[in-house]
Amino acid sequence: MKRYDITQPLFSCQVFPGDPRPEKEQVMHIADGDVCNLTKFAMCAHNGTHVDAPYHFYEDGKKIGEVALEKFIGRAFVADHEGDVTAEDAVNMLVKAREYDVRAAKRILIKGKSTVTEEAARVFADAGVYLIGNESQTVGPEDAPREVHLILLGAEVVLLEGIRLEQVPEGMYLLNCAPLNLGDVDGAPCRAVLIEGLV
Fold first, then answer.
1. Which residue, 18, 115, 134, 142, is most buried by CB atoms nearer than 10 A?
2. Using alpha carbons only, what angle is made at residue 157 by residues 159 and 16, rounded to the nearest 5 degrees?
């Protein structure tokens, strides 16, 4: 059984242009005579490896504390891809995933420098996918991510952004990317892990 940590270290993570960077401050130090080491930090809900809830783009959408854990935990398919993900590419990813297990087609993780197009987003949304993951800090084009987010989040497809899949071969895994339960907010950081051999 092999485990892959596909999470970025938070304080050295990539940040979407315009988002605040995560910051930390050690406020207690054992070396200074304090009883323990204690750190406080501040961050954006979408720093590093994180998930988007529908509320991110929909005022009446589900907030992170309302999204079922089933979306974040279960069989997933890692698909190798570079460049734009077209509708045809999306169909092929779903077909490959179903060849492993129909449940793996519920969570698609895209490995490589890729961008989900509006057409591909519609394919995933129409297929009832639970989650789409990618290595970029946004699932759509970085300069115009809104429409892809609207399509996927409107279908309650959770977005797992900023993952790292360089060491992960294409195939089926058990995914756990449960987010922090931040309650009534638009997204949350998570520790995303893939496990091989438990599916």
1. 134
2. 20
Contact 161, 133 (CB under 8 A): yes
Per-10-residue mean pLDDT, the chain, length 199: 93 88 96 97 95 96 96 98 97 98 97 97 98 95 92 97 97 97 96 87
Residues 6+ apart with CB under 8 A from 145: 138, 139
Global pTM? 0.94
How far apart, in whole angstroms, are the C-alpha atoms of residue 95 and residue 105?
8
What pairing do the DSSP bridges indicate for beta strands 193-196 and 73-80?
Answer: unpaired
* Interatomic CA distance for residues 102 and 59, integer angstroms: 32
Question: Order of strands, edge to edge, in the sheet holding 158-161?
Answer: 2-5, 193-196, 171-176, 73-80, 107-111, 131-134, 158-161, 50-52, 187-189
Dihedral pair phi/psi, residue 165, rounded to 5°: -120, 15
Determine the distance from the C-alpha atom of residue 87 to the mean position of all C-alpha atoms in its chain, rounded to a whole number: 20
Phi, psi of 69 (to 5 degrees): -60, -25
* pLDDT of res. 17: 87
Q: Show the tokens assigned to 181.
A: 């339960």
Helix/strand/coil for 94: helix
66 DSSP 8-state letter: G
